[in-house]
Specification:
Chain lengths: 368, 416
C-alpha cells in the first residue's frame, strides 16, 4: 500500500521490521511506520507546506529533539536532519515558504531552524515553557507567534530579540491555531480567545467555552470560500466542540460531540473517557481527524455531523497528528501522553509515527 | 379542578414548565417529549428508564433529558407525571403561579383587558411571564438580540413555550449513523407553521420562524469587519513594532476595536446554552484549579486528578528538567514558573544541577528578553546547533552527551 494510491506493493523499505511480532498491537492499522522515530514521546507533528516540492515531516519529542524526514511517494521515509533543544519540544511549525522550521520547547525558548544550512538560532524567550508556535504571514507583516505557560502570547520578528508585541492571556496557553487572518488560543481554566491578525494581531473576542473540561487541542476550519470561519476544540473529556465565529444561528450551528470513549457495555461498567490529544482538518475535504489517549484515531464530517471511521486501538495513546499539504497523507504518533500518570510510563517502549493514505477515507459523507 | 392538594392546582411538567389540564395528558406529554428514545423512538416511562434503555439497547449514554430546559435536565431524577418533583421546585412553581395570578388580577382591574398599560406591558401576560424567564436566557441564541425575544409568543398557541433547546439534546453522542432525521435535514422555515401543531416534533420550529432572514451567510461577509476598516489605513510593509515603514500619511491606525455587541451577546449566551444542554458529563468537574473529579458512577476520566495539562505534569519531572549548562547564562532550566511553581517543592533532589542553579524563582533575569544570547547573531554557530548538515546525524555521538541520563534510551533508539 503506497501512500498515494498508486499500485506499488506494500512492504517497501519504509517499514521497520523489528518489533513486529504477531501478537503485538502497535500497528493494528498496518500503516507505514516512519524510520528512526524519536526515543521519547512525540508531542507534535507538522508536514511541509505546498511551496516545497515533496513532503517533509517534522516531529518534536520529549527527548528534546526535532527530527526531519523526507516522505517519498512510495512511502519510504528518509531521516534528513535533527536539531536539539535543552528541554522537550512541545510544538513545531513551518514557515510559509518551507525554508524554516520553528520549534518551541520546555526550555522556554523557541528556535528557527534553517533547513538549508541546518543551523538553528533562538528567536524567542519566555518565562515558562513555550507550548505553541505558529508562523503568521500577513500581507504587510510576517512573524512567529508563541504561546507559553507564562500566560503571554508573543509575536516575534525573527531578526530581533525583542518581541514585536506581547499580549496577556488569562491563563497558561494550552493550544493554539492560526489560519490568517484568524488565530485561536485556548488556555487553562477553559479560557478561549479569538484574535484577528489583519494589520496587527489584536484580541477579537473572548468566548465562553463550549466545553466543560480542560482544553487540550484546537484547530481552525475554513468555509467553502477557503476563509477561516470557526474552530474545533478538544478537551480531556473525550469531547470536541465545533464552534463558528459568526454563525447565522449559533444555537443550531455550534455543537459538541463525544469521542474517544470506551463503549458503554450492558453491565454497569463505567465508561472510560479519554482525552482528545489532537485535531486536524483535511486541507481539501474539510473533514477532520481526532486522535485520543485511547489509542485510536477517528475521522469525522462536521457538516453532516457523522463519524466517518474509527481505527482499531493501538497499544499506546496517539499523541499527535497532522495532514500533509494536499491531504493525501495522515500522520499520527503513537507514544505515551501521561494520561495515566507516571506509573504507566515505560521508557523502553518504542514510539512510532505512522503514515496513512488519507485521500479516500476522509471524503465527506453525502448530505441527505 | 380545585383540588387543594399539596401539588399544584394544575399538573405541570417539571422538565419544561408546561401546564396541562390533566395528569394523564401530562404523562403522555412526558413520554412523548422527554422519555422518548431519540434513536428508536421507543417511549419509556421515566428519565432513568430512558437512560437505561439507551445504554442497554443502543450502547449509548445520554446525560440530559431531551427537550428539557436547562436546570431541569437531570436524567437521574425519577419523575412521573407530578410524582417525584423535588419539593423546592414545587414551591418555586407555586410562587410563580401566585405572582401570575396577582398580575392577572391587577390586570383585570383595568378598564379594558385588551389594552396594555405601560406598566403592564412589561408583564406581557400573553402567557406565564415568570416561567418564561428561566427560558429567557436562551432566547438570544435562538434569535438575534435585535429581534424581539420570544417573538412567536403572540402568535403561538398558548402552552407551547417557544424556547426549546431542541437541537442540542440530540447531540449527546454522535450516533454512529446519522443524527435523528427528524429535525436535522434543515427544517425549512416554511414548514414551521404546520410543524408547530404536530406534537411529535421537537419544539424548535417556533424559533426558526423568526430567524428566517439570512439563512445563509453572504459570501463576502468579512470575518472581522472592524479589522477590515482599520486595515485600509496601513497597507505598506510594517516594521518590527507594526508601525508602517513607509512614510504613510499621518493617519496612524488605532488598534481596531471589535464592536459587535450583537455577536458577542449571542455568542456568550449561545455558549451558555450549549454548555448546559451539551450534556453535562457524568464526571462532574469542580472548576477549582487543583483537582478534577475524574470518577463517577457511570464513567471514568482517564486523566490524572490535578487540573493541569498532561504536559505540565510531565514537565515537572526531574528527568525533563535537566538543561545544558551554557556559558554566560544563568540556567534556564528552572521549574516551570508561575502557577505551576506552587505545586513544585523547591526541587530538593536534582543531583545534576546543584552546581548550576541558584534558586531564582522570580526569573527576574528573563523578563521576556534574551539578554546577550549568543544565538542571536545570524549565521553564528549556536552552542546547540548541529554541525554537519544533512547527514543522518542520528548515529552521531556528538549530540548525545548532553543528555546525561539518556544513553540507555538512546542506544535502543532504533538503529536502522
Amino acid at each position: 500500500m503506497s501512500l498515494f494510491g498508486t499500485t506499488s506493493g506494500f512492504g517497501t523499505s519504509g517499514t521497520s521490521m523489528f518489533g513486529s511480532t504477531t501478537t503485538d498491537n502497535h500497528n493494528p492499522m498496518k500503516d507505514i511506520e516512519v524510520t528512526s522515530s524519536p526515543d521519547d514521546s512525540i508531542g507534535c507533528l507538522s508536514f511541509s507546506p505546498p511551496t516545497l516540492p515533496g513532503n517533509f515531516l517534522i516531529a518534536g519529542s520529549w527527548a528534546n529533539d526535532v527530527r526531519c524526514w523526507e516522505v517519498q511517494d512510495s512511502g519510504q521515509t528518509i531521516p534528513k536532519a535533527q536539531q536539539m533543544h535543552t528541554g522537550p519540544v512541545l510544538d513545531v511549525c513551518w514557515s510559509d515558504d518551507g525554508s524554516k522550521v520553528f520549534t518551541a520547547s520546555c526550555d522556554k525558548t523557541a528556535k528557527m531552524w534553517d533547513l538549508s544550512s541546518n543551523q538553528a538560532i533562538q528567536i524567542a524567550q519566555h518565562d515558562a515553557p513555550v507550548k505553541t508556535i505558529h508562523w503568521i504571514k500577513a500581507p504587510n507583516y510576517s512573524c512567529v507567534m508563541t504561546g507559553s505557560w507564562d500566560k503571554t502570547l508573543k509575536f516575534w520578528d525573527t531578526r530581533s530579540s525583542n518581541p514585536m508585541m506581547v499580549l496577556q492571556l488569562p491563563e497558561r496557553c494550552y493550544c493554539a491555531d492560526v489560519i490568517y487572518p484568524m488565530a485561536v488560543v485556548a488556555t487553562a481554566e477553559r479560557g478561549l480567545i479569538v484574535y484577528q491578525l489583519e494589520n496587527q494581531p489584536s484580541e477579537f473576542r473572548r468566548i465562553e467555552s463550549p466545553l466543560k473540561h480542560q482544553h487540550r487541542c484546537v484547530a481552525i476550519f475554513k468555509d467553502k470560500q477557503n476563509k477561516p470561519t470557526g474552530f474545533a476544540l478538544g478537551s480531556i473529556e473525550g469531547r470536541v466542540a465545533i464552534h463558528y465565529i459568526n454563525p447565522p444561528n449559533p444555537a443550531k450551528d455550534n455543537f459538541t460531540f463525544k469521542c474517544h470513549r470506551s463503549n458503554g457495555t450492558n453491565t454497569s461498567a463505567p465508561q472510560d473517557i479519554y482525552a482528545v490529544n489532537g485535531i486536524a482538518f483535511h486541507p481539501v475535504h474539510g473533514t477532520l481527524a481526532t486522535v485520543g489517549s485511547d489509542g485510536r484515531f477517528s475521522f469525522w464530517d462536521k457538516d453532516a455531523r457523522t463519524k466517518l471511521k474509527t481505527s482499531e486501538q493501538l497499544d499506546q495513546p496517539i499523541s499527535a497528528c497532522c495532514f500533509n499539504h494536499n491531504g493525501n497523507i495522515f500522520a499520527y504518533a503513537s507514544s505515551y501522553d501521561w494520561s495515566k500518570g507516571h506509573e504507566f510510563y515505560n521508557p523502553q517502549k518504542k514510539n512510532y509515527i505512522f503514515l496513512r493514505n488519507a485521500a479516500e477515507e476522509l471524503k465527506p459523507r453525502n448530505k441527505k | 379542578m380545585g383540588r387543594k392538594k399539596k401539588k399544584q392546582l394544575k399538573p405541570w411538567c417539571w422538565y419544561c414548565n408546561r401546564d396541562f389540564d390533566d395528569e394523564k395528558i401530562l404523562i403522555q406529554h412526558q413520554k412523548a417529549k422527554h422519555f422518548k428514545c431519540h434513536i428508536c423512538h421507543k417511549k419509556l416511562y421515566t428519565g432513568p428508564g430512558l437512560a437505561i434503555h439507551c445504554m442497554q439497547v443502543h450502547k449509548e449514554t445520554i446525560d440530559a433529558v431531551p427537550n428539557a430546559i436547562p436546570g431541569r435536565t437531570d436524567i437521574e431524577l425519577e419523575i412521573y407525571g407530578m410524582e417525584g418533583i423535588p419539593e423546592k421546585d414545587m414551591d418555586e412553581r407555586r410562587r410563580l403561579l401566585e405572582q401570575k395570578t396577582q398580575e392577572s388580577q391587577k390586570k383585570k382591574q383595568q378598564d379594558d383587558s385588551d389594552e396594555y398599560d405601560d406598566d403592564d406591558s412589561a408583564a406581557s401576560t400573553s402567557f406565564q411571564p415568570q416561567p418564561v424567564q428561566p427560558q429567557q436566557g436562551y432566547i438570544p441564541p435562538m434569535a438575534q438580540p435585535g429581534l424581539p425575544p420570544v417573538p412567536g409568543a403572540p402568535g403561538m398557541p398558548p402552552g407551547i413555550p417557544p424556547l426549546m433547546p431542541g437541537v442540542p439534546p440530540l447531540m449527546p453522542g454522535m450516533p454512529p449513523g446519522m443524527p435523528p432525521p427528524v429535525p436535522r435535514p434543515g427544517i425549512p422555515p416554511m414548514t414551521q407553521a404546520q410543524a408547530v401543531s404536530a406534537p411529535g416534533i421537537l419544539n424548535r420550529p417556533p424559533a426558526p420562524t423568526v430567524t428566517v432572514p439570512a439563512p445563509q451567510p453572504p459570501v463576502t461577509k468579512p470575518l472581522f469587519p472592524s479589522a477590515g476598516q482599520a486595515q485600509a489605513a496601513v497597507q505598506g510593509p510594517v516594521g518590527t513594532d507594526f508601525k508602517p515603514l513607509n512614510s504613510t500619511p499621518a493617519t496612524t491606525t488605532e488598534p481596531p476595536k471589535p464592536t459587535f455587541p450583537a455577536y458577542t451577546q449571542s455568542t456568550a449566551s449561545t455558549t451558555s446554552t450549549t454548555n448546559s444542554t451539551a450534556a453535562k458529563p457524568a464526571a462532574s468537574i469542580t472548576s477549582k484549579p487543583a483537582t478534577l473529579t475524574t470518577t463517577s458512577a457511570t464513567s471514568k476520566l482517564i486523566h490524572p486528578d490535578e487540573d493541569i495539562s498532561l504536559e505540565e505534569r510531565r514537565a515537572q519531572l526531574p528527568k525533563y528538567q535537566r538543561n545544558l549548562p551554557r556559558p554566560g547564562q544563568a540556567p534556564i532550566g528552572n521549574p516551570p514558573v508561575g502557577p505551576i511553581g506552587g505545586m513544585m517543592p523547591p526541587q530538593p533532589g536534582i543531583p545534576q544541577q546543584q552546581g548550576m542553579r541558584p534558586p531564582m524563582p522570580p526569573h527576574g533575569q528573563y523578563g521576556g528578553h534574551h539578554q546577550g544570547m549568543p544565538g542571536y547573531l545570524p549565521g553564528a554557530m549556536p552552542p546547540y546547533g548541529q554541525g554537519p548538515p544533512m547527514v543522518p546525524p542520528y548515529q552521531g555521538g556528538p549530540p548525545r552527551p548532553p543528555m546525561g541520563m539518556r544513553p540507555p534510551v538512546m542506544s535502543q533508539g532504533g538503529r536502522y
